[in-house]
Amino acid sequence: MRLSQMLFVTLREDPAEAEIPSHKLLLRAGYMRRIGSGVYAYLPLLWRVLQKISQIVREEMNAAGAQECLLNQLQPSELWKESGRWETYTQAEGIMFALTDRQGRELGLGPTHEEVITAVARDMIRSYRQLPLNLYQIQTKFRDEIRPRFGLMRGREFIMKDAYSFDVDEAGMKRSYGKMHDAYHNILRRCGLAFRAVDADSGAIGGSGSQEFMVLAEAGEDEVLYTEDGQYAANVEKAVSRPAEAVPSSFKTYEKRETPNTPTIASLAKFLDCSPTQILKNVLYQVTYNSGMELLVLVSIRGDQDVNEVKLQNELTKLAGDYKATAVIGLKVPDAEAQQQWATQPLPLGYIAPDLPDSYIQPSKTLVAQFLRLVDQTAVELKNFVTGSNESGFHVVGANWGSQYPLPRLALDLRKASVGDRALHDPSQLLQSARGIEIGHIFQLGNKYSKALNATYTNEQGEEVPLMMGCYGVGVSRLAQAAVEQSYDKDGIIWPVAIAPYQVIVVAPNAADQDQMAAAEQIYNALNQAGVEALLDDREERAGVKFKDAELVGIPYRIVTGRSLQQGKVEVVTRATKASQEIQLDQVVATIRQWIDAELAQ
RNA sequence: CGGGAUGUAGCGCAGUAGGUAGCGUGCCUGCUUUGGGAGCAGGAUGUCGCAGGUUCGAUUCCUGUCAUCCCGACCA
Predict the structure, then answer these.
(1) How high is the mean pLDDT of chain A?
(2) Which of A260, A372, A492, A588 can bridge A552 by disulfide, Cβ–Cβ 3.0-4.6 Å?
(3) Are residues A445 and A565 located together in one domain of the fold?
(4) Helices (H), A304-460
(5) Looking at A58, A93, A109, which one is the last position of a domain?
(6) Residue A281's closest CA among A178, A361, A385, A135?
(7) Do A297 and A267 belong together in one domain?
(8) Which residue has the closest alpha carbon to B38 C1'?
(9) A146 CB and strand B closer than 7 A
């Protein structure tokens, strides 16, 4: 492609709309333009990148035995009502663009395709003989993100590869999952990215096992905890660890003490001159279920630990049936205003005890009249602990479960793992922290959707059994930007060769110089013939402009037909390292071809 | 949805005690220059987000509204 003929517009300054480096660079280098909030036009350069990523994804999916298809984006509400997700996806989480057509039919714009693919499977898969099966598509998804952010990182319209596997049983599902796990490693390796596969929370999709593929970058929205030995890595939402040992309590007898102005753990520990690990912290949460019921939850946890709200929400979801509900649609620490809605008297904030009386709750039709009392594992083992007294200004010391307080019936893992914790598999390994961009997520769904939509097959014994499913996503457009986030310098983007829009850019520094232009043309043609994807900067610009643009756009190799032409040589510069060398005119194409092949083989 | 901010030329920004707007960059033309976003000369470009109101007159003041961005709860 000749730059003189291409839609090629670079910006000299950072656009005001962009915050993180990759977003700024993609806009500045002319890869994309914002059309609306969270909605971008993919311009020719970016489209090439996206197609390259798609092609790598396609090759690896095909190699893993998956079959490509293309599913509908307009999805009838009936399917989503069957799976029970219509309500949660259009209201509670509100992530689906929903619309009504002129006949009054309700439709959703596909945020994901479990329902559609399961409907297809229900219609077409009859026998175990047709299994296993894995279907995938690469397509635009629509999600009404509450807050679109960071360009392609969190758009409302984005390209995703989603795959769905169908197996006869759990073992088969795990095999399919394993294949996808390997395929994802291959995809990311081939795209030239530094990444880590981590244990993940399966969130709204549901299911059992799940892993995320994180591209490591400072701007990542997720925190990853891992061990040096490579044995453990998890999203902080999911991570487990051994907390630090509790310091044995220095309080021997139970008594109430005056502790003025100690509403926080830190202030209390200082006042009593004890370790936060001796304190029992009681945190109040307010939960809203999709049945309309509100529930107040009191979580007791060791003072030095924090509650992991994702874990808490998962546990509360398991209990949804007790409240005639199927999902949690809200979880918050009630603020003063929320407390006023239900508290019969001011709460002893900062001084709450695990036995905070239910009489604090104003009876109401939509509010459960008792606190749900949960205790984290770390707090179960505490002896002679310090905790609130339900009276402002006073705590108790030397308290014990069973003596002063009944141990809550539900003892769960609700704590947030953090950097420096000891790993479960090997206490000598300490958790390290890194930030990551989630570009892939694989799930073992089990039969959640197949049961809901009645997608069954007949097994060898002639029985009708629900299909065992898995689902697997890769954010294709997000991956493109993540690659930039991971690889850039002060001059611009540094694309890995495998996904660069073009592999080489040929620059004639002086467009007025006939020899330079002729040499550039000749090399450009030879590169094309050799199957190298090349750009020719034949614009009537000065050398500086051309070099700056080439670096900003991030083409891996630059060939300059400049001064060295006198000696029959051209200069070849590697974008990533800025390393430059002079190569004979007649050898440059073969050399470049070799370099590219070596890069692509990695 | 809660909190904070911003809408003026393609992009980045200034400005108007109320009198229809400017800087940088980019764009167009010409000459010079030609290995790191050149120099000189000339030129084009705006419903001042939108709608009401006040006023002789509103981009400026008032009211409303829409959009966008940032910080929090959701996700490839």
Answers:
(1) 92
(2) A492
(3) no
(4) 309-318, 336-342, 377-380, 448-452
(5) A109
(6) A385
(7) yes
(8) A542
(9) yes
Q: Which range marks the domain in which residue A190 is found?
A: 47-73+115-240+433-484
**In angstroms, rounded to a whole number, what is the distance separating the alpha carbons of residues A152 and A456?**
38
* Model pLDDT, residue A325: 83
Residue A147: band (very low, low, confident or very high) from pLDDT cuts 50, 70, 90: confident
Report the distance from CA of residue A17 to the C1' of nucleotide B50 in Å, as an integer: 21
Same domain, A155 and A220: yes
Does A381 share its domain with A391? yes
Question: Does residue A269 share a domain with residue A223?
Answer: no
The distance (Å) linking the CA of A147 with the C1' of B4 is: 15
The CATH number of residue A212's host domain is 3.30.930.10
**How confident is residue A75, by pLDDT bands cut at 50, 70 and 90?**
very high
Determine the nucleotide nearest to A157 by Cα–C1' distance. Answer: B76
A97 CA, B47 C1': separation in Å? 33
Q: Using the C1' atom of nucleotide B27, identify the protein residue whose alpha carbon is closest.
A: A9
Of the candidates A341, A235, A347, the one whose C-alpha atom is nearest the C-alpha of residue A288 is A341
Nucleotides of chain B touched by protein CB (<7 A)? 1, 10-13, 24-26, 33-38, 67-76
Domain boundary among A352, A383, A412: A412
Q: For residue A323, give the CATH number of its domain.
A: 3.90.960.10
Indicate if A200 and A269 belong to the same structural domain.
no
Query: Is strand B in 7 Å reach of the CB of A221?
Result: yes
- A90 CA, B2 C1': Å apart: 21
Tell whether A103 and A203 lie within a shared domain.
no
pLDDT at A253 (0 to 100): 93
Q: Residues 6 or more apart from A350 whose CB is under 8 A from it?
A: A262, A263, A264, A388, A392
Could you give the number of structural domains in chain A? Answer: 4
Whether CB of A313 is under 7 Å from strand B: the answer is yes
pLDDT digits (tens, 9 = 90+) for A513-556: 999 999 999 999 999 999 999 999 999 999 999 999 999 999 99
List, in sequence order, every residue forming a beta bridge with A139; answer none if it has no partner: A160
Nearest to A185 by CA among A164, A215, A208, A230: A215
The Cα–Cα gap between A258 and A38 comes to 54
Residue A584 lies in a domain: yes
Residue with tokens 């593929």: A213
Report CA dihedral (A165, A171, A176, A177) to the nearest 10 degrees.
Answer: 100
Peptide bond into A132 cis (omega under 30): yes
Q: Is residue A18 part of a domain?
A: no
Strand B neighbours among A 105-144, CB < 7 A:
143
Q: Is there contact between A10 and strand B, defined as CB under 7 Å from any strand atom?
A: yes
Assigned domain for A35 exists = no
A99 & A125 share domain: no
Distance in angstroms: CA A257, C1' B13: 61
Rounded to an integer, the average pLDDT of A315-327 is 86
Question: Is the Cβ atom of A537 within 7 Å of strand B at any atom?
Answer: no
pLDDT for the residue numbered A331: 83
Residue A17 lies in a domain: no
Non-local (6+) Cβ contacts of A145 within 8 A are A38, A95, A154, A155, A156
CA A314 to C1' B76, in angstroms, rounded, equals: 21
* pLDDT per position as a tens digit, A266-311: 889 999 999 999 999 999 998 888 788 889 999 999 999 989 888 8
